[in-house]
């Protein structure tokens, strides 16, 4: 099977186009490097900056909108901007052989989704063991798979409480609750909107929850960056569609960066990892501009319609779509809406509906951009 796939990708005769549609406009293409870098920077860095510096501190409702709008953007990216282009690449008419006999884009996406779920199961199991080893006997009340726990308000002094009211957030600590029917893993979304990130300090953070958040953020970053490489290359060597593609990618990168940046901003980062969120944002900001620069450098020799390019783009877009489908549906929708405490209590249902419709707007706008790119 592996030998057959190797033959399909590298050995079979290439009957696809060996040229690209590059038609000049070098000035505009060079400008795309800096414009897209700026919009990527704005989308991904602004939530992090706003969460940490008081002079640009935003009201809690701004984070609320950005958080759920970004969730919708990521879900739409998975289906419209990744899975559909992957299917187009892997079903191109010029491809021949077994690659055309199965819907590989959907198959690879499905395999990625299940593989990611397996890795998360193993990762959380390992994390749970580490927490138990570090916590000793107290770890029994902290089982990732079997224990029932819930986060409630922690007692704070009156000065801090005033700050909590201003920000619209609350510090949480874990206590036993026999009414919670869900395992601790499903309640880990309780702190997705990190109290420290928006100015409300916490004395202790659940280690298991912390590692889970890190895992989810890194997986999301991995999936988004893969996608950013290929759209940068495509823009650099595009032809008559360059102008429309340029405009769409400006908004595409800003919206996608907003979704990623909000998730980074609402993750707890301890002092010894304080540079990690900035590095993650920087990686996203630079990926597409670097890909555009590389595309311009090989503009005369890079054939985006060749067999190898189609297969490579199709496979990696399929993998990225599987990552974002899993992250979007499980982490950003199921955990946030169904298993967190953010929508509990009086007025919780109205708040949930508001979050839902904001997410729909993010999904709709990003899906609309799929008409052009």
Shape descriptor: globular
Mean pLDDT: 76
The number of distinct structural domains comes to 1
Strand order of the largest sheet: 1-2
Low confidence ranges = 139-161, 163-205
- How many β strands by DSSP? 2
Distance between the termini: 34 Å
Total of helices = 10
Cα Rg: 22 Å
What would your notes on this structure say?
The chain has one domain. Residues 139-161 and 163-205 have low confidence and may be disordered. The chain is an all-alpha fold. 39% of the residues are buried. It has ten helices and two strands. It has a two-stranded antiparallel ribbon.
Give the gist of this structure.
By secondary structure, this protein is mainly alpha-helical. The chain has 10 helices and 2 strands, in the order ααααβαβααααα. It has a two-stranded antiparallel sheet.
Properties at a glance:
373 residues, globular, mainly alpha, 64% helix
List the helices and strands and how they pair.
Blueprint: H1 2-11, H2 26-52, H3 60-90, H4 104-135, E1 149-153, H5 158-167, E2 172-176, H6 207-236, H7 242-265, H8 276-297, H9 307-338, H10 348-369
Helix pairs in contact: 2-7, 2-8, 3-4, 3-7, 3-9, 3-10, 4-6, 4-9, 6-7, 6-8, 6-9, 7-8
